């Protein structure tokens, strides 16, 4: 059972993706073997993706499909354009973004990174950054790659993050590659006590998602 609670953003945006964030309840995670816990969250992410596609076009049937490299999208039928979709999960949490433009989402439960990763990707040698900031930067990079249907391996130090503004628990900015191998994108980043969630859409947009929260069994 999924119980939605929707929070609509204030103001209007040129591109306004809908973001679905769900958590598998503790009993569902604890009642299965450790190796199977990831399957519980993956199933939750698929359920959220199906819900997102149903709400994206309530008058027609859109099925969840994947490209040859595993990128999810909505398949509305022959001759119809694909519906942009992105999926992420970390720990007991799952997230899905659905938009009118190619979109990438990445949710990360706060975690530490190796000393090598911190030195090469996340920090200035003279100024180390916090675990929360490391996780956030990783999440923005992952969402950026997903918006192009890309993933790892990738030269992560080539990706630059330019923060424009911070409003409470959310952050807005621009992502691009120094080498210009990928087009610039706009990002939206949300911090919670447990995780951060980043959304990226290529182009110059004011991203102001509609958030929909769910609790799954």
Protein model, in words:
- This protein has 217 residues and is an alpha+beta fold.
- It has one domain (5-216): 4'-phosphopantetheinyl transferase domain (Ribosomal Protein L22, Chain A).
- The protein is built from 4 helices and 12 strands.
- The strands form 2 sheets. A 7-stranded mixed β-sheet has the order 1-12-2-6-5-4-3.
- A hairpin with a 7-residue loop joins strand 4 (72-75) and strand 5 (83-90).
- It is globular.
- Mean pLDDT is 83; it is low at 1-14.
- GO terms for molecular function: holo-[acyl-carrier-protein] synthase activity; magnesium ion binding.
- It comes from Pseudoalteromonas rubra.
- It holds the Pfam family ACPS.
- Belongs to the P-Pant transferase superfamily. Gsp/Sfp/HetI/AcpT family.
Concise structural overview:
With 217 residues, the chain is of the alpha+beta class.
Distinctive features:
single chain, 217 residues, alpha+beta, Ribosomal Protein L22, Chain A, five-stranded antiparallel sheet, 4 helices, 24% helix, P-Pant_transferase_sf, transferase, magnesium ion binding
Overall shape = globular
CATH topology: Ribosomal Protein L22, Chain A
Give the structural class: alpha+beta
CATH architecture: Alpha-Beta Complex
- Number of distinct helices: 4
**Total domain modules:** 1
Strand content: 35-45%
Name the poorly predicted regions.
1-14
Q: Identify the CATH class.
A: Alpha Beta
- Note the main sheet: 7 strands, mixed
List the secondary-structure elements in sequence, H or E.
EEHHEEEEEHHEEEEE
* Portion in helices: 10-25%
How many extended strands? Answer: 12
N- to C-terminal distance: 6 Å
The pLDDT mean sits at 83
The fourth-level CATH homologous superfamily is 4'-phosphopantetheinyl transferase domain
What is Rg? 17 Å
**Major sheet strand order:** 1-12-2-6-5-4-3
